[in-house]
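Dock magnesium ion; give full complex structure.
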Amino acid sequence: MNVSFPLGCFTAVTGVSGSGKSSLVSQSLLDLVAEHLGMRREEVEEDALEEASTEKTIGRLRGDVDAIHRLIEVDQKPIGRTPRSNLATYTGLFDQVRKLFAATPEARRRHFDAGRFSFNVAKGRCPTCEGEGQVSIELLFMPSVYAPCPTCHGTRYNEKTLAINWNGKSIADVLNMTVDEACLFFAQDALVLRSLDTLRDIGLGYLKLGQSATELSGGEAQRIKLSTELQRTQRGTTLYVLDEPTTGLHPRDVDRLLVQLNRLVDAGNTVIVVEHDMRTVAQCDWVIDVGPGAGNHGGTIVAAGTPAEITENKASRTAPFLANSLKPSRSPP
Ligand SMILES: Nc1ncnc2c1ncn2[C@@H]1O[C@H](COP(=O)(O)OP(=O)(O)O)[C@@H](O)[C@H]1O
Ligand SMILES: [Mg+2]
Ligand SMILES: [Zn+2]
């Protein structure tokens, strides 16, 4: 098959389940673009590898492929795989917070550098739990359980580190703050505030800075990944691919996600989503409808065009549903 994806646009790939959307976008397109960029698809998870077909994508890219310099796949998988990564470390704001603590007179007197305030470095962290804040208890015949560390009581740090205060709070107190609380606490520090503001912007003001990256919901993880992307200097040369990004999201969170994706497109980037949510599809620039059916009855491009053009297509099973969402809607109460 031949298919064209417009660059610098927000494109939705639609079609019934099993019609071949993921094969087209998450397999073929990603494979070909990754190969073109000389990337290895190392992000492929082990379980995904088992499911994935062993067949190699055969195909060719044409057009202005050189306008794409980066390829990013954004999914709802947790960010970071260990509890050693949390909101503060992932967004990078913890680096600046640690510098603030190291610059206090008390820390300088004791020669504590910024590394001292990392729970991943031996000198400042609790020796019992090695900075994890919790210890695993092995149970015979049963899965082991986690309990708060008896030495540091979950603070992750040793007493000497905890004795250092910045404006009356220890480094552990800071990790225990929500994003909203931290915004007030770090109101004078532009660098910290920039990361915090971005998190608040995407509706995550209620999360704690120390919340482990493994404990975020899929939707939270996805928005955090996108917000770190939005903080990068935008050169408009990145291709973002998302396979069913609105799955499991409340309509309000879908709106927030769309704000983020639209910002990426406004900066000149290309966003391609595989999508079933017609409210999302209706506001895309371009729609590629795959199908018409599933399995052997799918796999062809039924229609491609603006959302309005797709609704005119008699062969498209997506058309009537999309037409519903394109109608001028009543504003919510
Ligand atoms: N690795 C595979 N081997 C054989 N068939 C597959 C494989 N992956 C997907 N399929 C089949 O190909 C069709 C398209 O799948 P997929 O691209 O995942 O659909 P969609 O994302 O549109 O729901 C489906 O009928 C699916 O069962
Ligand atoms: Mg799919
Ligand atoms: Zn401990």
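Observed: The chain has a mean pLDDT of 90.
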